[in-house]
Amino acid sequence: MIEIWGGATSRTIRPHWMLSELGIQYTPHLIGSRTGETQTDAFRRLNIKEKIPVLVDGDLVLTESAAMVTYLGDTYGPDTGLVPRPYTVERAKYNEWLSFVQMELDAHTLYVMRKHRDLADLYGEAPAAIDTAIEGFLKQVRFAEHRLDKAPHLVGETFTGADIMLTTCLAWAKLYGIELSPVLDDYTARMAARPSYLEAAKLNFSISPGG
Ligand SMILES: N[C@@H](CCC(=O)N[C@@H](CS)C(=O)NCC(=O)O)C(=O)O
Predict the structure, then answer these.
(1) In CA terms, which of 71, 162, 180, 187 is 20 to 30 Å from 172?
(2) Ligand 1 pocket, 50 CB below 6 A?
């Protein structure tokens, strides 16, 4: 049985959401970050980074949310279209969106805000870095807006794991009070109305965030 470790954040919901899309039963371990639960020897053996989410499937351990979303679609839903087949143009575009969301929206804009605002005790206050991060987010997110102005999803004609990645970042931005354009607002609302999202969100956000 697949296990997913982690809950409460925009990143942890990603594998829960994909598993819900696939309709697969699995074992969730809803632990929060920096609660002590990621600092045990047993957890460090799974992820030396002391971070969530973590996926365990037999001998396979994955410690990056985008890799989990893609692995689950490739392995358990090759005919669902949730992850485009390898060696196709759609897969190339899917990969591009995943890199874009992780780098431009997650890692060096939203996470900078989190580090220097919510986690300022750990990483220090840096108002200028927060302002630059908001500016950077708003500039970069126009790439997604440009696509979604013309199409309902990021890749091809249907919902894919790339939409999971983007929606979780847009919801995170809204939580931080960043105003999205009507195109992005509408997209976020449509994605968040999917029954699989609602199911995953109910589980993922049933614990409160760690420190
Ligand atoms: N790139 C990783 C980021 C994982 C990550 O930073 N998780 C946060 C919670 S959202 C965490 O566990 N932080 C604990 C820490 O930084 O010590 C992914 O997308 O899975």
Answers:
(1) 71
(2) yes
Q: Is the CB of 37 under 6 A from ligand 1?
A: no
Any atom of ligand 1 within 6 Å of the Cβ of 163 = no
Asked whether 21 lines ligand 1 (CB < 6 A), one says: no
Structure tokens at 74: 């490739």
pLDDT digits (tens, 9 = 90+) for 124-136: 999 999 999 999 9
Question: Over 31-81, what HEC string results?
Answer: CCCCCCCCCCHHHHHHCCCCCCCEEEECCEEECCHHHHHHHHHHHHCCCCC
For domain 89-194, the CATH class is: mainly alpha
Q: Which of 68-77, 118-127, 193-202 has the lowest mean pLDDT?
A: 118-127
Tell if the pTM clears 0.90, that is, is over it. Answer: yes
Q: Summarize pLDDT for 12-56 with one digit per residue, the tens.
A: 999 999 999 999 999 999 999 989 999 999 999 999 999 999 999
Distance CA 69, CA 12 (A): 11
Which atom of ligand 1 is least distant from the CA of 66? 19
Topology (CATH) of 3-82+197-204 = Glutaredoxin (3.40.30)
Rounded to the nearest whole angstrom, what is the distance from the C-alpha of residue 105 to the centroid of ligand 1?
14
Mutation to probe ligand 1, out of 4, 11, 16 (largest number of atoms < 8 A from CB): 11
